[in-house]
Amino acid sequence: MTRKYSLDKDQPIKREDIERYHLLKLSEVIKYTGAKSPFYRSLYAAAGIDTDEIKSFDDFSKIPLTEPRDLIGRPQLFCCLPQSEIFRGFSADGTIDSVRVFYTKDELDRIVASIAAALRTLGLRRGDVLQIMFPPEAEWGCDYLVSRAAEACGASAVVTGHDLLEGQVRKIVEHKSTMLIGSNPYIYAITGLAEGRDLDWLGIKSIIMSRGCNYFPFDESIRREVEAVWGCNAYDQYGTIETGLAVSIECKAQDGLHINEADFFVEIVDPESGEVLEPGEEGELVFTTLNRRCMPLVRYRSGDISNLIEGKCRCGAEILRMEGVKRKIIREDERKPSRLSKTFL
């Protein structure tokens, strides 16, 4: 029977509360994947991991890292539920020879709730209109999830895809949009097309620049350029296909990206040795999902370089934060199965 962990809603959440929650969830995830996932069952056995003996973060750090190449062409080895319970699958680049991750309907609903919480943090309210500048996908794609999240905030959403700047401006005027969200490179590109014009007359309150599976820079010079043209704050957001799209986002204080610690345990490791680094040290982001039943991932290497930030954000929250991703590691053998994966071929 799954143990429950709850917090007093009338009391502020402290760091030690989050750490206790993480240890509880990590213990549950290891036992669950060891029983249900063919890949992790073999991984733990090969590494001599006793799934009943994960009682500390040091114990957890001894579990081998999961490589992205382990997922390529073999998502069924990670699935812990029958195919009848799979609701939607996502591919990192839309091809068969890519990382593919499956979700249940409940898991997608949880992602929607997470996105909605982030949108509320940045001020999306009833009566606002969120203009979603992601390419339209099949139902339950990224654009649909964000649309549902906006509706959960009491706002409206309009998906405008990848249009040229003039087309997006027309749609902002037509729909009376108040907030924009799109990929970092796309928003930066159409901002450049403004060629010195100010667009603050459109009344946009904030812009969310998403970064994920592919690396694109976002630094203070880019932020200043975007903010100067649109006359509003621009916020960095990070998520990947493997982690469910919504991992972290800046708050209005713009003091690092707040990590969704309810759903993820995040580590920074040395890209060469895999050793866990201290907060503040720069290394590779590694994720463990805490609430996924369909295709949980344990110590999954993102290939993204960043560092963690402890202590209170300027907004007052004690949630763990991360710096924006600084670069992407491109491994020559990332498309080749690992030694463990080959045992399943």
Structural notes for this entry:
There is one protein chain. This protein has 345 residues and is of the alpha/beta class. It has a single domain, classed as Rossmann fold (3-Layer(aba) Sandwich). The protein is built from 9 helices and 15 strands. It has helices at 15-36, 38-47, 57-61, 105-121, 142-152, 165-175, 184-192, 220-230, 339-342; strands at 88-91, 100-103, 129-133, 156-159, 179-183, 206-211, 233-238, 248-250, 257-259, 264-269, 283-289, 300-306, 308-309, 321-322, 327-328. Strands 4-3-5-6-7-8-9-14-13 form a 9-stranded mixed β-sheet, with helices on both faces. Strands 10-11-12-15 form a 4-stranded antiparallel β-sheet, with helices on one face. A two-stranded antiparallel sheet has the order 1-2. It is globular. It starts with 14 loop residues before the first helix and ends with a helix. Mean pLDDT is 90; it is low at 1-9 and 339-345.
